[in-house]
Amino acid sequence: PHSYSVWEGATSCTCDRGFFRADNDAASMPCTRPPSAPLNLISNVNETSVNLEWSSPQNTGGRQDISYNVVCKKCGAGDFSKCRPCGSGVHYTPQQNGLKTTKVSITDLLAHTNYTFEIWAVNGVSKYNPSPDQSVSVTVTTNQAAPSSIALVQAKEVTRYSVALAWLEPDRPNGVILEYEVKYYEKDQNERSYRIVRTAARNTDIKGLNPLTSYVFHVRARTAAGYGDFSEPLEVTTNTVPSRIIGDGANSTVLLVSVSGSVVLVVILIAAFVISRRRSKYSKAKQEADEEKHLNQGVRTYVDPFTYEDPNQAVREFAKEIDASCIKIEKVIGVGEFGEVCSGRLKVPGKREICVAIKTLKAGYTDKQRRDFLSEASIMGQFDHPNIIHLEGVVTKCKPVMIITEYMENGSLDAFLRKNDGRFTVIQLVGM
Fold it and tell me: What is catalysed by this protein (predicted)?
């Protein structure tokens, strides 16, 4: 049937249009055709998986070797005309192609995503005449799920009493992000006492913090399906920038004397720099600077690094270059004018490991910012006094450019006194 011959007594017949014999069919076998589309396709969505069931085609094409193939397409939000293959991340049970049953389970789909599934009925001759008439399709939207964790949380600005946080959207939102939840607590509390802040934006300012205190921050996102996991902890220490000069209470007078003494010391240092600058007459030669160091019978004169045409020359003279491999940055403790301020460790070969403070020069700096940054190191490198922070060295041969100083565990003196207002006697304060 469905064949003909132009010669009487021919050993084989030619199939009619639209009918075929499979490669392994004998010449004596009848011609057949591809099956029609499966019937009654239904879908059942369960979060990020879909179960499909259907009925056999009405017309099998005259063959018994019928099977089914599943095609999965991921479509754009609100636009089902823009679809692309799902890829290898989707799994099919029992299999995707060559199904002998009329049902399949599809798992590992993305949440809150549009999909189109096509079920193709095939037999031994389908490859000779593939046609959309042999398939049936259904479009579904998977349910929303809890979002993935947030990969990156940053401290954009740190002050004495606040921290400005920002973060990225989760890699897999799995739905519409309704809000973000920020959990934070003092590091030494170990989550025994924490606070929660909620916001719809991807940034927030955490205020009312204690100065010179280490805080731990976590952020997570929420969809209609619930909260995702918290991000990795971000540890930030509020910095030492004062918001007021004189504190309240009975010890304000003592504190005023202490701060006034610090101001006087700063004025003296500034005067020394001004005098030095005038003496140097803005010399650009290293020889003149060297001569000034030995004036007044060995009394050391501090040289203004801005008198050098090349700031690198001043750094080489007054600061030691440190190999970046000797430095280990542990955490961010503040944000300065030029970039982040971190705490870490310095291990120079032949010396014991020490705690250090690390000032980094932010990316995208200008030539002026780099000059000012290095000049700060040149100034610090000329001081050798127990009451002045000690410069360990600099990193200028790779990025980021860094200034390495001794680590002040209790912060600056004025901030330490402010935090401990009322705890010291007058004798102790004079000793400081």
Answer: L-tyrosyl-[protein] + ATP = O-phospho-L-tyrosyl-[protein] + ADP + H(+)
Q: Is residue 222 part of a domain?
A: yes
Smallest CA-to-CA distance from 305 within 334, 282, 330 is with 282
Task: For residue 189, count CB atoms less than 10 angstroms from its CB and return exposed for 0-12, middle for 13-18, buried for 19 or more.
Answer: exposed
Check if the beta carbon of residue 346 is closer than 8 Å to that of residue 320: no
Q: Which residue, among 55, 58, 14, has the nearest Cα to 34 in the 3D structure?
A: 58
Residues 280 and 401 in one domain: yes
How many angstroms separate the CA atoms of 33 and 65, rounded? 12
Residue 359 assigned ligand-binding role:
yes
Smallest Cα–Cα separation from 118: which of 136, 93, 100? 136
CATH code at 393? 3.30.200.20
Q: What is the pTM of this model?
A: 0.44
Q: Judge if 230 and 256 occupy the same domain.
A: no
pLDDT at 201 over 90: yes
Domain assignment present for residue 4? The answer is no
pLDDT tens per residue across span 315-324 = 888 888 998 8
Q: Is 20 within the bounds of a domain? A: no
Question: Is 76 within a domain?
Answer: yes
What is the Cα–Cα distance from 56 to 66, expressed in whole angstroms?
A: 9
Chain length of the chain = 432
Domain identity same for 272 and 197: no
Both structure tokens of 300: 């050391």
Q: Report how many domains make up the chain.
A: 3
Query: Residue 66 belongs to what domain range?
Result: 36-141
The one-letter amino acid code at 91 reads H
Determine the Cα–Cα distance for residues 139 and 43; give it in Å rounded to an integer.
9
**Average pLDDT, integer, range 415-427:** 70
In three-state secondary structure terms, 226 is: strand
For residue 380, what pLDDT is reported? 85
Q: What pLDDT, in 10s, does the model give residues 86-137?
A: 988 899 999 999 999 999 999 999 888 899 999 999 988 888 877 778 899 9
